[in-house]
Amino acid sequence: MDLVEIPTVPLHPQEDARQATLDALAILDTPPDREFDAITNAAARLFGCKIALVSLVDRDRQWFKSRCGLDTSETGRDVAFCQHVIALDRPLVVPDATKDVRFAMNPLVTDGPKIRFYAGIPLRVVRPDNNGARYPVGTLCIIDDKQHDFGSEQLAQLSELAGVIEALLDVRLAEQAARKLGEAQRRALDSLDVMQRLFRQAERMAKLGSWRLPLSTRRVQWSAETYAIHALTPADSESVERAIEFYAPYERHKIAGALERAIEDGTPYDLELDFTDATGKAKRVRCLGELEMRDDEPVALVGVIQDVTERWMMEQQLRQLANTDELTRLASRSAFNTYIDDQIGHDGPLALLLIDLDNFKTVNDRCGHAAGDDLLRLMASRLQAPYLAGSFAARLGGDEFVMVLTAPEALDNLDHLLARLLGNLHHRMRDAGGSIHTGATIGAARLIAGENRSALMARADAALYRAKAAGRGCAVVAGAEECVIPPADRTTHLRAVG
């Protein structure tokens, strides 16, 4: 078979405007962001692909703002699948790249990472100086080294994830514009007409309103968009006291203090606060303020307020996604790491339990992975029983769980609690081959003063190893000579650890 050259891909019809939009984002070669990483990780899991990328197509390269399952940070634009998405400005699905003349001889197909399947959605961003036109600056794509059947439903799901990324990029562009507006304001305080024109552009672009508080009147003047954020009809001015009442009661001291410091010593502020508009609708707003000087004398406070509710809610959802185990709905490993470090930092007493399920592989082998998933969910529910109230449970991965006990009653009666927990985690399943008894083996360790997470985990892991060596289905506390077993009569039984 004769070798064929990689077909040349045309540029986007408005390549200069597209590239200018990407440049305006100022995002190339920036550090990773957890919001983008959460989406690529979720996309890889959702579609069962080894690789998921947020790819931004530059002049002669594609650079990855977020990458899941790929080590390299960029490739040449000439070999990029995503370049085809940019040129077409529409989604692209390649079920098998080895059978597609556009990609069969591509080095990314013939060599690492040996792409077989590709699906990409264009990421379009509004160029602020071009009447709201949107240009594709990159893609959200998923890649695998085996063929996939990818239907319209999956394409719609991938498009929804791409929409989240577009919103994040829009927010970034708006914040870039707001920052530039603030810089322009400082350079041209004596040109009110210019400042008002810039703020009007920002308001139309990003729910961004402006305000000015003359120190002589203490009545704040709002732009039309600022009134819209407050859900009020525009008026001549509002009192400072009335303006502060729109913030949540627990936030008012923050904004009031920031205003006073700005007036007293010129300290600028940048706050993000909870807010309720005149209709009672809860919002999240970002507010900036600084002192306006004329002839070296302070004359007013000036600033902007932005409704960031959608972005904030998106961040909360992504944070929840990152901190929750998808299968069991317990805390994730990363959430556990944050929690245990915080608890250790408070120097209070605690005990760490490493929990390893027994016979889990047997369940998977004999009953199937769906039954294994059901068992994991059942064990997770039992780790949240009422008698464990106040404890923290997380899934570390596979059939491994962890608990942190801080309640005095639990710590004072640790052996009794372990025996009860072992009994509660015992479960019998039936299949065509008979019964399968599942349960747990536990290694526990009490926190020692000055100990860090790694040392505490290591001692609990050593105790777990001893418990497994003692025959499984029991618990060992680090430093103890005996192991805890779950008796039928509900009393705590101890036996020597060999």
UniProtKB/TrEMBL annotation:
Residues 348-480 form the GGDEF domain. PROSITE patterns: GGDEF, PAC. It comes from the Bacteria. It holds the Pfam family GAF. Residues 269-320 form the PAC domain. InterPro entries: GAF, GAF-like_dom_sf, GGDEF_dom, Nucleotide_cyclase, PAS-assoc_C, PAS-like_dom_sf, Rev_trsase/Diguanyl_cyclase. This is Sensor domain-containing diguanylate cyclase. It comes from Sphingomonas crocodyli.
